[in-house]
Design goal:
With 255 residues, this protein is mainly beta. The protein contains three helices and 13 strands; from the N terminus they run E-E-E-E-E-E-E-E-E-E-H-E-H-E-H-E.
């Protein structure tokens, strides 16, 4: 017995009509605050700039502000260095202490912005996993961290092969690299199906320094929203663009 299978094909045609949008961007004079306080003994940096309307536009630094940190016992003032840069530094011997709450105060003309955060401990690092690429004889990092964990964390990897033979005469952007990775306490489909990254290859002898930073729940939510609109965009599941969360008082954004 023969069975005939008929396939019905439908061809749908769609019309496209261009639409002209007249956009009127509104001025945004908010101050963007960027700062990361750790238990490392070093000059910690707070950056102040103005919000920009265009992607990848150079930000205008906010200079001449009075920036201070209060740890519950002592208040220190940060110095702008270099002058006019919008970059404010602590003393080189400054280091944060776990379980202390730090308050940031920024005074700019008649405006005052405030933020606070509590430093939490960090869990130990897991070993990196890397492999060799047989096509070019170079190495690449195959695994840094799980995408999900009960304790959110940020990983920073610094790679340097500037002293390796045949690479020592290359410019800095060709023989050094920095890689950031994150662990959140949520699983996001846009993270699991994020677009592929360009592979980073490095030669034998490369020095790799890995640092792990603990994240407060509030900072974790900020970073998760940030990567959802940057590193995770362009995959199969995009997120709707929105304002990032912040711990700054009204008139300022960032973290």
């Amino acid at each position: 017995m023969r069975r005939w299978i008929y396939i019905l094909g439908l061809c749908l045609a769609a019309c496209e009509k261009p639409t002209e949008w007249t956009l009127h961007p509104q001025p945004d004079d908010r101050v963007v605050v960027e700062g990361l306080l750790t238990n490392e003994k070093k000059a910690h940096r707070i950056r102040l700039s103005r919000a920009v309307p265009e992607l990848n536009q150079a930000a205008e630094p906010v200079s001449g502000a009075d920036v201070s940190l209060f740890d519950g016992d002592t208040t220190i003032r940060l110095a702008e260095d270099p002058p006019g840069s919008g970059s404010y530094l602590t003393d080189p011997s400054y280091q944060g202490v776990v379980d202390k709450t730090y308050e940031l105060v920024v005074q700019l003309d008649t405006q005052t912005f405030m933020a606070s955060a509590t430093m939490i401990p960090v869990t130990p690092l897991d070993p990196l996993i890397y492999s060799k690429n047989n096509d070019n004889g170079l190495y690449f990092i195959r695994w840094i961290n799980e995408p999900y964990a009960a304790d959110p964390a940020m990983y920073k990897l610094y790679l340097d092969w500037s002293f390796v033979e045949d690479y020592d005469s290359l410019p800095a952007d060709s023989n050094t690299a920095q890689v950031n990775s994150y662990t959140f306490n949520t699983l996001d489909v846009s993270q699991l199906f994020a677009p592929d990254r360009e592979s980073l290859f490095f030669p034998e002898g490369t020095i790799i320094i890995e640092k792990k930073y603990s994240l407060t729940p509030e900072y974790s939510a900020f970073l998760r929203a940030l990567v959802a609109e940057t590193e995770w965009r362009g995959g199969y599941f995009d997120s709707q663009a929105a304002n990032l969360p912040t711990n700054l008082s009204e008139g300022a954004i960032g973290f």
